[in-house]
Amino acid sequence: MSGPLLLRDVLKTAEERLAAAGCASPRLDVRLLAEEALGWSRTALLLDGDRPVSAEAQAALATLVDRRAAREPVSRILGKREFWSLEFRLAPDTLDPRPDTETLVETALRHLPDGQRPRRLLDLGTGSGCILLALLSELPGAWGLGVDIAPGAARAAAANAKALGFASRSAFLVGSWTDALGAGARFDAIVSNPPYIPAADIAGLEPEVRTFDPMRALDGGADGLDPYRHLAAVAGDLLLPSGLLAVEHGAGQGADVAALFAAAGLEVLERVDDLAGHDRVVAARRLG
């Protein structure tokens, strides 16, 4: 792109480039990238089509469009993602939060009434911290601990907690699952969006996921259920009586996850579909 082109032409060319690259929502992607590259408001992008775009601005947008055409997600390019109406900064070690995961937050909140009640929450595989911090935003009496095996993820989650005003009500540890926890740690609720993709299926995922999400946040073992076996084994020791375990899982895995929890002596409370109608969340509780 060079010369004094008009905004509508610049956007049209960029949109055509992304469509040809196989991007699912080229128009929306271009608008988001243009906001970043040009520094113009969304309203200006929609209404000021006759506005000339400088060569420098065209080049800045072209750089971002090139990255998206290589199937890098817009959220990775911008370094941020909105989740639960909160803004989360991303890092290479963090999973890119998806709207489906809000189903996990909604489910956990349904089983955690009285937001003022003091509670201790545990988020295993916290990533950006989006699940834990979304819950803290709705449960003002709660305190939360996030654990992630990736140091970069724990740092990103802690930075998000500080930016969102939850630093005093949260802490983040680096460790493999529950290995980072001290003896006798007990929680009112455990939440997790663990790796659940069967290892053999990863090569067939969309490039946005396969190439740009951290592999250890995707690979759930041969059948995708290894993390749930671990959670079932440790939940009874980590939960207080009647404590909640709520997890996200892949489509079609709900029955197996529920069976693992029931076999471990947990009471399965419900299985929940996401907005697309796919089974997405299992909620259970410790008896006693």
From TrEMBL:
Residues 9-79 form the Release factor glutamine methyltransferase N-terminal domain. Substrate binds at N193, P194, P195, Y196. One of its GO terms (molecular function) is peptide chain release factor N(5)-glutamine methyltransferase activity. It catalyses: L-glutaminyl-[peptide chain release factor] + S-adenosyl-L-methionine = N(5)-methyl-L-glutaminyl-[peptide chain release factor] + S-adenosyl-L-homocysteine + H(+). Keywords: Methyltransferase, S-adenosyl-L-methionine, Transferase. S-adenosyl-L-methionine binds at G125, T126, G127, S128, G129, D148, W177, N193. Gene3D superfamilies: DNA helicase RuvA subunit, C-terminal domain, Vaccinia Virus protein VP39. It is an enzyme of class 2 (transferase). Residues 109-196 form the Methyltransferase small domain. Pfam families: MTS, PrmC_N. One of its GO terms (biological process) is methylation. Transmembrane segments: none annotated. The keyword Transferase applies. Its EC number is 2.1.1.297. The keyword Methyltransferase applies. Methylates the class 1 translation termination release factors RF1/PrfA and RF2/PrfB on the glutamine residue of the universally conserved GGQ motif. Belongs to the protein N5-glutamine methyltransferase family. PrmC subfamily. This is Release factor glutamine methyltransferase. It comes from Nitrospirillum amazonense. The gene is prmC.
